Amino acid sequence: MARGLFLTFEGIDGCGKTTQLALLSERLREAGHDVLETVEPGGTDAGRAIRGILLDPRHHALSARTELLLYFASRAQNVTEVISPALQRGATVLCDRFTDSTIVYQGAGRGLDEATILELHRIACGSIFPDLTILLDVDAETSLARARSRNRETGSEETRMDDEDGAFFARVREGYLRLAAREPKRIRVVDARGPVDVVAQNVWEEVNALV
Ligand code: TYD
């Protein structure tokens, strides 16, 4: 059986990835695809425990390298336990964030070396890499405002990443746009400022061209 397609969603916090991933998943299922959804960090029991450490505001003192290794620890388990088996059975895998997040948050954001990040990817994930990545692009101010209002609405605690300032998210966004310019075929930039259904249609057009 042919290996399934591996699609990832990327973008700065509050860009609407999670909503758009759910809408795409529904549409692919309606079209008859076997779809598996997963998330980084998380996706497995161990991954969710690691996510708890990473996003807990009490862990202010986590060093950038500790953070880097924890993101890849979660990912290694997700690849082994969930992503690879699903791709092998021919499913379409949708993942909310993947290694591009590490390249831009820990690389462009925290200043870690990209070659090191790619080497860790090879150790953690082998040859697994997305076939298509949807980058939901929005400016840092809009996304921060959205992320904060979502936290208020859901009453959720601020996560550690929410402590970062606008300059951090601006660097992350620039990092994403640089990656997309380098790999225009794999990474498709979709303007995320519009209404949800317009963005969803634009995402669908990018994906439909491939499936
Ligand atoms: P997430 O719930 O995905 O945030 P959002 O839904 O707002 O996008 O939380 C993950 C946080 O972890 C987010 O701030 C981005 C960060 N992150 C990294 O810094 N590096 C990584 O490799 C990944 C996967 C996420």
Notes on the protein architecture:
With 211 residues, this protein is an alpha/beta fold. The protein has a single domain, classed as 3-Layer(aba) Sandwich (Rossmann fold), CATH 3.40.50. It is 56% helix and 12% strand. It is built from eight helices and five strands. Strands 2-3-1-4-5 form a five-stranded parallel beta sheet, sandwiched between helices. The longest helix is centred in the middle third of the chain and has 25 residues, at 64-88. It is globular and about 45 Å long. The model has no long low-confidence stretch (mean pLDDT 93). The structure holds thymidine-5'-diphosphate. Thymidine-5'-diphosphate is lined by residues 13-14, 17-18, 40-41, 71, 97, 101-102, 105-106, 147, 161.
Q: What is shown here, in short?
A:
This protein is α/β, with parallel strands linked by helices and 211 residues long.
Please describe the structure with a list of short key phrases separated by commas or semicolons.
211 residues; 8 helices; globular; 5-stranded parallel beta sheet; binds thymidine-5'-diphosphate; Rossmann fold
